[in-house]
Amino acid sequence: MTKAETAKLLTLIAANYSKFDVPDIKVNLWFELLNDLPFNLVQTALKKVMLTSPYPPTIADLRKAAAEIITPIGETLDAGKAWGEVQKAIQKCGWCDPEGAYKLMSPLTKEVVEQISWQEICSSEETGVIRGQFMKMFNTLADRHKEQKMLPEKLKAEIEKIGIKQIGGKS
């Protein structure tokens, strides 16, 4: 997205929300934090937000809406359906074939199952407890993945660079 397109986007927001000002500093900030996205995607995200919220959108609102728009429908798994994948894998593969079971799961479901342990899930006599732990972990991980998806690649690289410096003891 170009700076001119960013200004156009902000003008559209101001046209719909009377108390939304468009100073140059706002154009610069929004451009910096949205320029990695195609204008047509952000414009569609803006329409979605305008139709669902009585408040002017923030940069985060637009990035979230854009991420939702480009996420394939099959990747919007909720914790209940993910647990269903686990149950189906248990029935088809059992305790001794975790690799076969993992092939039946979405990547996020597999990640949570690996954190808990396939054998722990299969051998637990407290199915309700394991299910609750799974669902809580799934929701936490799904939120983290959504948040990561909303961040521009340049910012992710900056965050990683800072994290590596801190881990290495440098500042």
Tell me what you see in this structure.
- By secondary structure, the chain is an all-alpha fold.
- It folds into two domains: 68 residues, Helicase, Ruva Protein, domain 3 (Orthogonal Bundle), CATH 1.10.8; 72 residues, no CATH class.
- 74% of the residues lie in helices and 0% in strands.
- The protein is elongated and about 60 Å long.
- The protein starts with a helix and ends with a helix.
- 16% of the residues are buried.
- The model has no long low-confidence stretch (mean pLDDT 90).
Total number of helices: 10
End-to-end separation in angstroms reads: 33 Å
Global shape = elongated
The percentage of residues in β strands lies in: under 5%
List the uncertain runs.
Answer: none
Largest sheet: none
Name the average pLDDT. Answer: 90
- How many structural domains are formed by the residues? 2
What is the radius of gyration computed over CA atoms, rounded to a whole number of angstroms?
21 Å
Element pattern in H and E: HHHHHHHHHH
The chain-level structural class is mainly alpha
Number of strands: 0
Task: Please sum up the structure shown.
This protein has 171 residues and is mainly α. It is built from 10 helices and no strands.
Secondary-structure topology with pairs:
Elements: H1 3-16, H2 24-34, H3 39-52, H4 59-70, H5 79-93, H6 98-103, H7 107-116, H8 118-123, H9 127-150, H10 153-167
Helix pairs in contact: 1-2, 1-3, 3-4, 4-9, 5-9, 7-9
Keywords, please?
Helicase, Ruva Protein, domain 3; mainly alpha; single chain; 171 residues; elongated
